[in-house]
Amino acid sequence: MPAPCCLPTLPATAAGDAPHHVTVEDTGETFPCTSQETALSALARSGRRGIPLGCRGGGCGVCKVAVIEGDYVKRVMSRGHVSEEDEQAHRVLACCIQPGSDLRLRVLGRMRKAVMQNAGSPSPVNPR
Ligand code: FES
């Protein structure tokens, strides 16, 4: 198993605490997310079922997504989970990116399976 290569916290972005929204294209769900938190943290905070919460530090690769639209700040990700080609194609780890604008994501790999299995399941917390 590759060692986590990320710092425990991400630096603040220039946008400060601006509210953004992360939309999961596969389900159409949208979650609020500040520029101070990771996309995975926002999804987890929503209470949405099926969000795989692994290491939250870039080490397990369970939270892989493709960013379809939007700007983000990323931290270093393990090459064991995100190749250079992946990174250039905006396939990244949701626990290692912070939004700089609204983001539209497509879930991949294990995250896709978990999210799609629970698509349409009621969330204990209203994400909006
Ligand atoms: S939760 Fe482990 S890499 Fe994102």
From TrEMBL:
Record GO terms (molecular function): 2 iron, 2 sulfur cluster binding
Gene3D superfamilies per record: 3.10.20.30
Database matches in InterPro entries: 2Fe-2S_ferredoxin-like_sf, 2Fe-2S_ferredoxin-type, 2Fe2S_fd_BS, Beta-grasp_dom_sf
UniProt xrefs under SUPFAM superfamilies: 2Fe-2S ferredoxin-like
All copies of domain 2Fe-2S ferredoxin-type, residue ranges: 20-111
Pfam families the record matches: Fer2 (PF00111)
Organism of derivation: Sphaerotilus hippei
Protein's UniProt name: Ferredoxin
